[in-house]
Design the sequence.
């Protein structure tokens, strides 16, 4: 009897988690508190070039943190590709920062999934400069370098937000 009670409790907890996660995704994830990012964040491109966040001043920028093992991360990359193709002529850029511990996993992924926007790895200790609460996390940054939106979860409304910024 006690064993059945424990199994029932575990199944109930799993059901609550699944319902909460479904509601979280249906509401579009979480919009976190907006804060500006350090302009000295540095990244390494696939071909070994160093880029800094400050290099993108004057552009509207989507800075996304993702991982290959994260299904929602991989689901939103095509959303970014579409938005990039639709808005790059207006000065929109995407930097997708891969946070996997293995560079080989990242390289294999991009070899099999070519995207036209910039995909990078972090340089140095990114965690000490930026607190990430999970993946995917995206920062939408205006031309002046101000963070206008922080999105945790799949960024389905990106094109709507870009349309407002480019009015």
Sequence:
């Amino acid at each position: 009897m006690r064993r059945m009670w424990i199994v029932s409790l575990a199944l109930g907890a799993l059901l609550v988690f699944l319902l909460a996660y479904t509601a979280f995704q249906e509401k579009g994830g979480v919009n976190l508190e907006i804060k500006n990012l350090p302009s000295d964040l540095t990244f390494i491109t696939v071909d070994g070039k160093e880029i800094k966040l400050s290099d993108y001043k004057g552009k509207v920028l989507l800075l996304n943190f993702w991982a290959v093992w994260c299904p929602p991360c991989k689901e939103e990359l095509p959303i970014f590709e579409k938005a990039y193709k639709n808005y790059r002529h207006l000065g929109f850029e995407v930097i997708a920062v891969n946070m996997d511990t293995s560079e080989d996993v990242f390289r294999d992924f991009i070899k099999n999934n070519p995207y036209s926007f910039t995909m990078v790895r972090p340089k140095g200790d990114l965690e000490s400069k930026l607190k990430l609460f999970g993946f995917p996390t995206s920062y939408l940054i205006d031309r002046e370098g101000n963070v206008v939106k922080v999105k945790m979860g799949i960024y389905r409304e990106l094109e709507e937000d870009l349309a407002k910024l480019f009015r």
